Amino acid sequence: MAIIIEEEKRRINWFPLILAVSLFVMVVSLVYYLFFAPTPLIEKVISQNIQTLKELSGIKLNPEEVVNNPKFQVLRQYVNPVETGSPGKNNPFLK
User: Fold this and answer.
1) For the chain, is the Cβ count within 10 Å smaller at the N or the C terminus?
2) How large is the angle between the packed helices 41-48 and 50-57, nearest 10 degrees?
3) Rounded Cα–Cα distance for residues 65 and 70 (Å)
4) Per-residue pLDDT tens for 4-42?
């Protein structure tokens, strides 16, 4: 009579394996996007708008010309001026 002894099959613990693979994928994608990815769109858009910014920075604004303009003087103020009151209670510790 022969005795057959089967070895118990090793069960694979899937959680650490999936965790390690996902961590590896995240690290690889992080390295790719930090060092090898093409330039973002915002840098391309900003470089095209530099000419517009240069034109805007060249505008000289003269406030006296605006204030003395008759069209500006015709304007009326519809909001009452803000009244400043006391900022709070007096400090009881000061004498």
Assistant:
1) N
2) 40
3) 10
4) 777 777 888 899 999 999 999 999 999 998 888 887 676
